[in-house]
Amino acid sequence: MQERVVRNDGPRLATRGLYTLILRLALPLALARLYWRGLKAPGYRRRVGERLAWGEPAPRASVWIHAVSVGEVQAAGPMIRRLQSRFPDSGILVTTTTPTGAERLGELFGEGVAHRYTPYDLPGVVGRFLDQVRPGLTIVMETEIWPNLLAACEQRAIPVVLANARLSERSAHGYARVAELSRETLERFSRIAVQSRGDAERFMALGAAPERVRVTGSIKFDLRQPASQRDCAEALRRLWGQRPVWVAASTHEGEESMLLQAHRRLLARIPRALLILVPRHPERFDRVAALVARHGLALARRSRQEVCGEETAVFLGDTMGELPALLAAGDVAFIGGSLVPIGGHNLLEAAASGVPVLVGPHTFNFAAITEMMLEAGGAERVPDAEALAERLRTWLADAALRAEVGARGLAVVERNRGALDRLLEVIEEAVGLQPPAAS
User: Fold this and answer.
1) Which of 107, 217, 352, 407 is spaced 20 to 30 A from 76 at the CA atom?
2) E-strand spans in 269-388?
3) Each residue's pLDDT tens digit, 198-207
4) What is the mean pLDDT of the chain?
5) Domain that holds residue 294
6) How many domains does the chain have?
């Protein structure tokens, strides 16, 4: 691997020291939050020692990949497979912050990829973790920027690549409030592979070295639908029967009420319409089910294998790992987190299945991808529940229009594939490795 020059922190230690002090003071609150979340999602209370690098040591691995939750794990999946193929002797360790991310990793790779929970960004904790793993390369997915982690990797001459990175204007403003800490942290990345030119400009404005920033595109465009997913989608359609179906994916607190209002409006015009409702966080499944009941709508739950009869108005997708198949089985998809100011979620899983997409007004988390889809006519934006119901009525009543919009979205996905190849080139450049010669 390439030798890296290690800086003398000098006066910058004071800035990072204040950050570390605040983090130490917040640690009891962070642990208490794990316990509180664990009351409804027990996974948060399991293996807590890993977050402090205590207990059973993390396994040795040549490559450490940090992915926060389900979305990042899903995006990292093709990259992990390619790394395993190119460097078969390199052990891979993936860390996640959430139990759902850990579960998704297990579904994708089983025992083939090791997992640990992400260590808290305290010098002693990060140091213990790195001493256990001894990675030759660290890959951080999307926008996880941890000052002490970056400093510890630099001290050990471990290259760090920020992969599939995105930085919204809103997040950039937040980092700008701690400009000195942001600048010194970004300077420690070996490479920053960003999704768009706008992301690159925002990272460089915060202090990232221009020669280390590469626009590679989003690897989420490189997702491929396995045959098993298509089979699962077809099975779901048989389960639901021959009726108009729309999927509300990755929904959030306060959003489901608006979606249920829209569905009630839709039912007044298309009585057989079925809503597939998939909340973002598993710990909310029961609360959302109770909310559906309060709205007076007949419900069937996927987790309980309940029959989805003609009287069923809402099918709750309360299982893990099935969202891609649920989206592929729908006639129209609404992507959640966008009617409330969460910032939206990824449109591409629906678009890759040729399903037309609707989003709300708040899409800053996926601004570039959303604008691409909107400009191409593969998606439309609705301002509120009333407009959502009207657009659903139009699309669900016109199969030819749905097919046309879905084809435009799929074309966007097809045109933008290739980001994964470009990202792997950046990773190889960062560590000075070349893929094995073809035999």
Assistant:
1) 407
2) 274-279, 299-301, 314-316, 332-335, 357-359, 379-381
3) 999 999 999 9
4) 92
5) 227-415
6) 2
* Residues 6 or more apart in contact with residue 412 via CB below 8 angstroms: 351, 372, 373, 376, 378
Neighbouring CB atoms inside 10 A of 404's CB total 13
CATH number of the domain encompassing residue 53: 3.40.50.11720
Question: In this predicted structure, what is the pLDDT of residue 10?
Answer: 47
| pLDDT the model gives residue 13 | 61
Considering the domain architecture, whether residues 88 and 210 belong to the same structural domain is answered as yes
Query: Do residues 122 and 33 share a domain?
Result: yes
CA dihedral 323, 82, 95, 5 (to 10 degrees): -140
Which sign, positive or negative, has the C-alpha torsion 234, 239, 243, 245?
negative
First to last CA, the chain: 23
The rounded distance, in Å, linking the Cα atoms of 69 and 65 is 12
78 and 143 assigned to the same domain? yes
Q: Does residue 121 sit within a domain?
A: yes
In a domain? residue 437? no
Dihedral over Cα of 72, 427, 216, 378: its sign:
negative
Residue 153 lies in a domain: yes
The enclosing domain of 285 has a CATH number of 3.40.50.2000
Quote the pTM value.
0.81
Whether 209 and 312 share a structural domain = no
C-alpha to C-alpha distance for 274 and 253, rounded to whole angstroms: 21
Residues in the chain where the model's pLDDT stays below 70: 1-14, 433-439
- Tens digits of per-residue pLDDT, 141-184? 988 889 999 999 999 999 999 999 999 898 999 999 999 999 99
Beta strands in 236-280 (DSSP E): 245-251, 274-279
Q: Among 2, 346, 335, 62, which Cα is nearest to 191's?
A: 2
User: So which residues are the catalytic ones?
Assistant: 72
